Amino acid sequence: TKMHQAATMLMAVYNHFQQSVLIVTDSWFGNDGLWSRLDRGQNGAFHLLSRLRTNITLYDLAPVIKEGTKNKRGRPRKYGKRLGSADECATAYRKKAQTDLSLSVEQMIEFYGARWKIEAGFKEIKQEIGSARSQTRNADAVNNHLNFCMMATTLTWVYADRLQTEPDRRHKIRGRASFAFSDVRRIIAEAALDSNFQSICPRPTQTAQNSFIKTLLRMVA
């Protein structure tokens, strides 16, 4: 399942860096399906930042049974007092919500605007690169396909960061001056047609022992 694959990749990230991982997801992953597969955070190894669905019911923590207290019949309570749905809680606590006033106005706008980049990242990897168009059905093949797509997306932005001048936006949009992901892809495609590109991607008839692309493929594998 998607939850199992996501948890497996997140575990690999934690095992590699040995540092706590902050997971930022949309509401689809923001339930117990992913959290339970991560052992509910593994005592601080994982933190989940997500948007709750409005119809999710929230409960208080289950009451702690004091040592020596006689247990009641039946299974121990899994949840505490019902707090209401996420929508009901948001309505009740909206007036108590506060903004971190230590931030400047520019920082508030920047942090708020950065949320949309999450959705843009999904579009880039699913539509621009093609992770959503995989024809594979084997679990390992699906993971490999996603890893290749993530590598391609990362290399595209690394390439954009190394450009001396910002590329022109091909499709002009009022109020947006920055370039788009597709603009960088177009520049890479034009560079690939240059004769010097063969030094990075040699022809099949040439030896590929020191190929940059082969090194990247080994990293993904």
General description of the model:
Helix 5 crosses helix 6. The chain contains 7 helices and 4 strands, in the order H-E-H-E-E-E-H-H-H-H-H. With 221 residues, the chain is mainly alpha-helical. The strands form 2 sheets. A two-stranded parallel sheet has the order 1-2. The model has no long low-confidence stretch (mean pLDDT 81). It is 44% helix and 7% strand. It has helices at 2-17, 32-35, 86-93, 105-128, 139-162, 181-192, 212-220; strands at 21-24, 46-49, 57-59, 82-85.
Q: Care to give the gist of this entry?
A:
The chain is mainly α and 221 residues long. It is 44% helix and 7% strand.
Strand order of the largest sheet: 1-2
Briefly note the structural class of the backbone: mainly alpha
Count of helical regions: 7
Report helical residue fraction: 40-55%
**Roughly what fraction of the amino acids lie in strands?**
5-15%
Q: Say how many strands there are.
A: 4
Low-confidence stretches: none
The radius of gyration over CA amounts to: 24 Å
Q: What is the helix/strand order?
A: HEHEEEHHHHH
Give a short account of the largest sheet. Answer: 2 strands, parallel
Distance between the termini: 21 Å
Average pLDDT: 81
Looking at the structure, what is the overall shape?
extended
